[in-house]
Amino acid sequence: MKPNETHTTTVRILYFARLRESLGKGEEELVLPDGVATVGALADFLRQRGDAWASELGAGKAVRVAVNQDMASPDTEIKGGEEIAFFPPVTGG
Amino acid sequence: MKPNETHTTTVRILYFARLRESLGKGEEELVLPDGVATVGALADFLRQRGDAWASELGAGKAVRVAVNQDMASPDTEIKGGEEIAFFPPVTGG
Amino acid sequence: MPVRVQTEDFDVGAEIARLREGNPKVGAVASFVGIVRDLNDGDAVATLTLEHYPGMTEKSLEDIVAQAQQRWDIYDALVVHRVGTLQPLDQIVLVVVTSAHRGESFRACEFLMDYLKTRAPFWKKEVTPQGSRWVEARASDDTAADRWS
Amino acid sequence: MPVRVQTEDFDVGAEIARLREGNPKVGAVASFVGIVRDLNDGDAVATLTLEHYPGMTEKSLEDIVAQAQQRWDIYDALVVHRVGTLQPLDQIVLVVVTSAHRGESFRACEFLMDYLKTRAPFWKKEVTPQGSRWVEARASDDTAADRWS
Predict the structure, then answer these.
(1) How close, in Å, is residue C115 to chain D by CA atoms?
(2) pTM exceeds cut of 0.90
């Protein structure tokens, strides 16, 4: 990670478990599009990619989101520089 | 034990833990005195020996009794042939 | 035999492994180990001697295990309790329960400990700097056992 | 470190012994072992693969242990969770808690399992005769975790 990363508008997005398999990737770097300032807005943006993105992140799918490794909600703000993870409900233990 | 023991009026009495130490014995054979037909009556009889017997088996002392290795109450009948144990509340585990 | 009273120490890992050995339906193992502490009721404990009632103790432990088997959907249960003279840090008692799901083995394991504490004929005598003394039964143990009735 | 995520198996007896080593104030050790079953939701399970979120998983387990330390009067707690591909009879998870008296270690041990099941980022994928499938989260686990809030 670059020292000035928190001042860029790039985020690192991680996908786990069923999402990683369905979306075909475990992580990506994304320059935050204009107007994307919350977790909810980011999910909306990703859904517009269509296909698996629309269905896996769509309504009725239980998806959890963590920002910088803390559980987040659709309202959680993102500014760039964050590590954002999407994953299904956990099933460990 | 003799095969006909259940037809005698002898009982085997066991004492454990604090009672064994205070009474100075761990077990004894006793011919049931006339009129002693319950655990409560047996305790009354033993108390009449005085000293430690009176105090250890006396009112206010928490003493448990088992007849043939099952927990018993003062009303539990005894006919002879039983193994009767007196002991303090248990403290294992 | 789900119940043992012995003077020798026990190996927790080996006992757990043996209890679930070859049963691929076991998804949960709850266990408890009781240990001699160096302090009881404010006094230093040098040794702890455990006495039992041979015959009745085993019988009462087996009865408690049978009750647990009836009350919960568990596979196996094991109780090992030591007698004789022990020192601080020594293991006293082991309870292990296996089941498919964790709730049942947790419940049964705690039930076994609560019932064992209040119903199985064992007595503890401590040696402290003030001399030796028989440990008194605790009201809190009766309260714990009463939860299950 | 009270928390470990690892591919290697663990030795329950050794972990318990290490956690209470040299602490003569420990009178109670409650522990739980989770194991791969050969049957889940009615289907035979050939293998189970566990995935986690390196970094966040450890962080969330440490947070859960810290919560247990705050809520109960316990000495130490340990959580070991395996990842990678496992088979029926393999150990998945170990939770151990030490305390002076048994109530606290039982409570904290069960709390740790309930919170771990619903909050720590682990995911299970099973291989069955019907192919491989991601295990679905259970409502009963949420209910169990809700007891503590």
Answers:
(1) 13
(2) yes
